Amino acid sequence: MPTEIVTIDSAHPEQAFERCREVIRSGGVVAYPTDTFYGLGADPENPAAIRKLFLLKGRQADQPILLLISDQAEVRKWAVDISFQAKDLMKRFWPGPLSLVFKAKQEVLPELLAGTGRIGLRVPGNEFTRQLLAFLGTALTGTSANRSGGQSARTAAEAAAVFGDSIDLVLDGGPAAAAMPSTVVDVSGTTLKVIREGAVPSQELVR
Question: Is the pTM higher than 0.85?
Fold first, then answer.
C-alpha cells in the first residue's frame, strides 16, 4: 500500500497536523518539511519508534539523532548546563538552521545520544514546522529524510520515493527552500566546536 501523503493547507493546517499526531502517538514515522530539507519524525520518547527510525535509514547505532523543538523554552526539557554562549547563539540564530549540541539530561533516551551523552536541538526557521511541533506538544526527531549516506529529500515526492511504503505518512509542505543542511555546533563544553559546516557560516558564529 502506498505511503499516505497529506498536503498541508497553509490556511487550515490542523487537519494535516492531527493526522500526523495520530501517527506519532501510535509509534509511527513521518516525513515532514523543515527549513532545510525534509526530515524523518518520530516520538523521541518512544524507544520502539526510534529503533524503527534507525532501521528505515540504515543508520548506525553510533550516530546520534537531532531533535527539532518548537521554541527555546523546550531546551531545558532535554539539556542541562546551558552556557551563556549557547544562550547567545539561540537568541541570535533561532529560529533558523543552527543545530546546537548540549549535554543531555539523564532521562533522555540513550538511543538518541549514541553514547555521547549529548543531544542536538534546533528551533527550525520554517513557521509551519514550528506550528506542527507546538500542535503535537512534543519534539520530533529531525534527521534528514534519506537513507544514510544518500541525498536529502527536498520534496514530499522525493521522500516518498526513497522510503516507499515503509514510512507511515508524508506531510507535503512544498519544496524545501534551503540548499544546505543546518550548521551544527557543540556547546556542551567550555569552548564552541563546529561539528558540521552548513547554512550558517562559521564567520557569523564568531561575530
Answer: yes
